[in-house]
Amino acid sequence: MSTASSSPRSGIRVGPILVTAAIMVVCLSVWAAAVVANPIRDQLQGILNFARLPAVVLTALMVGLAVAAVALLRSDGAEPEARVEPLLPRPVLPASRRRQPLISFHRLEPSAGSSTLCFNLGALLAAEGIVDERSGGRRPRPICLLEAGDLSDRLDLYPEPLTDYLARNPVSVGDELLGFAKRHPTGLELLCISEGAINGQRLRVLLPFLRKHYDVILLDCPSGDRWLTEVALDLSELVLVVGLPSSRSAAAAAAWAEEAWRRGLEGRSAVVVNRVGPDGHVPDALVAGFLHQAELPDDPSVGAADSHALPWSLAFTSLAARHLREAARETLGDFLRTRAPNAA
Amino acid sequence: MPPEVMRLLEALAIAAVFILILPKRSWRSLGPRFRDLMTGRRTSLFEPPRPPQGGLPRQLQVELRRIFELGVPVFVAARIAERRARVTHEVEEAAWRRSSSAVLLDLLQRRVDEAEARRRLEALGLPPPQAKAEPAARAPRSAMPLEWFVRHEPAPVAA
Question: Which of A4, A332, B15, B74 could form a disulfide with A27 if both were Cys (CB 3.0 to 4.6 A apart)?
Fold first, then answer.
């Protein structure tokens, strides 16, 4: 996790210095032309004479305004953000209207952050979502099928039980599958999957069962599992392709965008650019092929939370959480409506 | 004073006005940045301002770089918008403190136990997280009545 954003105030920016130098060069050229004999010398002297008083008045006014702004618009509280917030476009994501949507996450390169996004979106939905609002409202129960890796290890999740169960029950699943899901304190349930454990056929078998018990199904799709990816693309209400603002992700995104167009999935697929730096730079090739996109900033608190298996999406101080919420409201607005506290 | 020096001072005064008025950082991004500030999506126009410390001269010294880079009009607008964004941020933070995310985060960080988290959610009028999914309870179905078999008994086939 980059921490480049933690030292925002240092460094000399060239742009303002160049602009200032250009202004100085123009004004000194005017001065030189006004004192050296030439055809427009008198006109320039007239301009300088005319501009003298307004320039002095405006300079004094600007200095006074700056002093007044600093004196009157003081902020005594602590700074809300101590790091640079990149300028990120508002997320544009398709709204998911299905009752129990399947949302699949596909990474464009290793460590793109698909697992942490999958887990954190699930935790956010479980903690903040509302379903059945007419009958008082209850929290949704999402399930996250998390690829085995560092995050699943920290959450004490292991793929073997589910893998064994699915090997023993290749054509149907029963209620005993619920026993393999681990409940997180947020209300999210987690299943750990390894590459090859859930192939496309098993996902087709699993999905109706999961839809009976869970409100949202989040699939962290192992990138090497081509069959599962194919079926996930067909069955998902929303396909999220997660990449980094790097040339490697940009190269991989082109193939994804082409596939989405070929299958007619462009309306329900989106690219999520994770860990956008303070300069806000995202390669055009990464987002150009997608109709929908969301960008999440680089946030050191994400790495810290992940190392303790804590859902950073619940924290107010996390910049990435703020943008994830915004993106989640865009696509899962039916679950994440703003609800007044004590409304009951 | 020689006229050349007089003219130089006039030219420098004009340069000073332009330097003080013109913003010198990515003009194209100013619009979206101000929009984000006004809606509370961000809290500072570019880099976060340094925390306030000391009297007015110290504050001016701290803000000198921003005044130079943004130009005075944009700097003043930025101070107003940042103040507004700060108020929005504080309101949002207060709302978050009363949300289930805050309670559940406390639970996950072991600042409160499950019972206390449940009590706090109840006090805030918020629904608790869902319990673990359980198999749907199914009542055992009674066996088919004997009469049904008798009624549907196939007729004996005549040899």
Answer: B15
Q: Which CATH code of 3.40.50.1000, 3.90.1750.10, 3.50.50.60, 3.40.50.300 fits the domain covering A102-331?
A: 3.40.50.300
Q: By CA distance, what is B94's nearest residue in A?
A: A316
Using the Cβ of B24 and the Cβ atoms of chain A, whether some distance falls under 8 Å is answered with yes
In a domain, B51, yes or no: yes
Is the ipTM higher than 0.90? The answer is no
- Residue contact A70–B46, C-beta within 8 A: no
Scan residues 190-249 of A and list those with Cβ closer than 8 Å to B: 212-214
Burial A248-262 (b: 16+ CB within 10 A, else e): ebbebbeebbebbee
Whether A279 and A15 have beta carbons less than 8 Å apart is answered as no
Contact A51 B72 (CB under 8 A): no
Please tell me the distance from the alpha carbon of residue A245 to that of residue A283, in angstroms, as a whole number. Answer: 6
B100 dihedral zone (left: phi>0; alpha: psi -120 to 50; beta): alpha
- Sorted by where each begins, the domain ranges of chain A are 13-72, 102-331
Contacts of A90 in chain B (CB under 8 A): 41
Rounded CA separation A152/A131 (Å): 27
Q: How far is CA A119 from the centre of its chain?
A: 14
Answer yes or no: is B66 within a domain: yes
Which residues of B fall within a CB distance of 8 Å from A13?
25, 69
Q: Would an 8 Å CB–CB cutoff place A264 in contact with chain B?
A: no
**The two structure tokens encoding residue B121:** 């959610």
The pLDDT-based confidence of A135 (bands split at 50, 70, 90) is low
- Domain span at residue B71 reads 27-81
Q: Using an 8 Å Cβ cutoff, are A143 and A210 in contact?
A: yes
Angle (CA) B117 B122 B123, round 5°: 100
Interface of B with A in 88-117 (CB under 8 A): 89-90, 92-93, 95-102, 104-105, 107-109, 114, 117
> Considering only CB atoms, which chain B residues are within 8 Å of A181?
132-133
CA distance linking residue B57 with residue A194, whole number of Å: 62
pLDDT digits (tens, 9 = 90+) for A90-129: 999 998 888 899 999 999 999 999 999 999 999 999 999 9
Q: What is the pLDDT of residues A268-277, one digit of tens each?
A: 999 999 999 9
**Contact B11/A48, CB-based, under 8 Å?**
yes
Answer whether residue B77 is part of any domain: yes
The better pLDDT of the pair A225, A110 is held by A110
- A65 touching B (Cβ < 8 Å): yes
Closest CB from A66, A75, A82 relative to B67: A66
